[in-house]
Amino acid sequence: MKTLAVVVTTPPYSHLTTSALTYVEAALVAGINVIGVFFYQDGAMHANKDINIASDEYQAIEHWQQLHKQYQLPLHICITAAEKRGIACDSIDNDQVNKAFTVSGLGELVELTSKAARLVQF
Amino acid sequence: MTSSYTEEKSDLSSNNGLAIINSKAPFSSNNGKDALDIALIFGSFEQKVSLFFQGDGVYQLIADQDGRLVSIKDYLKTFSAFEFYDIEDIYVCQQSLVNRQLDEKFHIDDVQVLPSVEFSSALNRHQHVLRF
What we know:
heterodimer, A: Hypothetical Protein Ychn, Chain: A, 35% helix, globular, B: alpha/beta, Hypothetical Protein Ychn, Chain: A, five-stranded parallel sheet, 4 helices, 25% helix, disordered N terminus
């Protein structure tokens, strides 16, 4: 089984994130088992549901949500990176974290790396 | 995808595991600290991890630095704990040192300075690569 894990370190407003999305979507369409996307550094900002990007610009977060919904693609955010960037992750009824994302730690990255044949970073 | 894709084993213990390339200077960004956090987590999960220092990343190894002078937490001190985390493979790009006129005077021991070709072949022995 072809397994792929992806690390995203760029924020939702970065053009580089577009490459990550195009790549992941192409992998999913090709039938590759994308076992998870790990959002680290500025990538954690994707999980902030209060981010508003002008409607005529590329909607990276919406695209991730779409892939999550369509392919059950696991989207993990690093809790340390997220909290550093103002996304409160600790409260139980937290409504600042986008529901498509799972709050995880770096241990999840270890898990993904050990399971994936390929690890690709953006 | 090439046929080698499926032949690769995903078990980290069967190869050299993860390589982390440090390519940024220590105090201008969080990259060094973010890379260190990953290295230590892999170490504590007993997964193989090697560290590569290249480009401005070599500054992270140079001795006698103190981030506190510029009000930054001196994460470089934690490098001395690598042994405790079984992180033993630490490689430095010799050419990057030469280009910056830096001596091979590091704040941790057992650092291997490698010429470009050996540096890249050491990197090539790893299944996964992350770059910061």
